[in-house]
Write a structure and sequence with these properties.
- The protein contains 13 helices and no strands.
- The protein is globular, with a radius of gyration of 30 Å.
- By secondary structure, the protein is mostly helical.
- About 5% of the residues have low confidence.
- The longest helix has about 30 residues.
């Protein structure tokens, strides 16, 4: 009888020890998070990413003010670059300049003046799509989570709904009819739920007419009375007028909702 009790006690004792050790392990406090982990959590927060986006844009705008890319219209392209290589470099510089809020009409005129109508149009369109993609990516990754909760006004909610539900059509109209600044359309689309492919396709297709008009105007600026220059200027003015009328009508439509 005593031997049986001893065997039961001996069998139960390891289980009790395991239970006690498991219980003691459960209450052991975790070590405090390190400095690197805390910094990672802070950097992943929406407002920290938004602050980083604003800092990047401010730095880009400051760089543009310092380097003055508008000098391309007066001083020309560096002589060591020519042909297709110069067009590719110009397209990359064009895209980065649009992210830094340089007006596209100025860059389009420079493209036409430096490379002629055809090559200038190709370089300007490539730079347009590149700059739009960079701005869209920055806004989507760094700004969307922080800015979407702030879309509470009627106009903001209406614009967000239009871009989210009819992204390609809305962006195509914004590119065809000037009125909305290029950078503003990029970041508004990034904050909405528009997809990458509709945004880039609409940007590329919708930018062709206006970009071509400016490129031709830049290429023929030395002959302001030529038919090509006059047609280009008309192609710039008419869409701007139509865009103004459409925006005015949409204003009444939104205010009545």
């Amino acid at each position: 009888m005593l031997d049986a009790n001893r065997s039961v006690t001996a069998t139960a004792s390891p289980r009790a020890a395991v239970t006690e050790s498991a219980g003691s392990a459960a209450v052991v406090p975790l070590p405090p998070a390190g400095f690197a982990a805390r910094c990672t959590r802070v950097l992943r927060s929406p407002y920290a990413r938004l602050s980083l986006l604003l800092a990047l844009l401010a730095g880009a705008a400051g760089s543009v003010l310092a380097f003055e890319p508008q000098r391309l219209l007066t001083q020309g392209w560096p002589p060591q670059l020519g042909g297709a290589t110069a067009a590719v470099v110009f397209a990359v510089a064009y895209g980065l300049c649009t992210v830094a809020f340089v007006p596209r009409p100025l860059l389009n005129l420079a493209a036409g003046a430096l490379f002629g109508s055809q090559l200038g149009l190709a370089a300007a369109l490539a730079g347009t799509v590149l700059g739009a993609g960079v701005a869209f990516g920055l806004g989507r990754v760094l700004g969307q989570d922080a800015l979407r909760p702030l879309l509470r006004g009627r106009w903001l909610q209406a614009a967000d709904g239009q871009l989210s539900r009819h992204g390609f059509r809305s962006m195509l109209a914004a590119r065809l009819f000037p009125g909305v600044p290029f950078w503003a359309a990029n970041y508004c689309a990034a904050v909405s739920r528009m997809g990458w492919l509709p945004f880039l396709l609409a940007t590329g297709l919708g930018s062709i007419p206006n970009t071509a008009a400016y490129a031709v105007a830049g290429a023929r600026a030395s002959a302001p009375t030529s038919p090509a220059f006059l047609v280009a200027m008309a192609s710039i003015a008419v869409p701007a007028l139509v865009g103004t009328v459409v925006a005015w009508r949409k204003r009444h439509h939104l205010s009545g909702r």
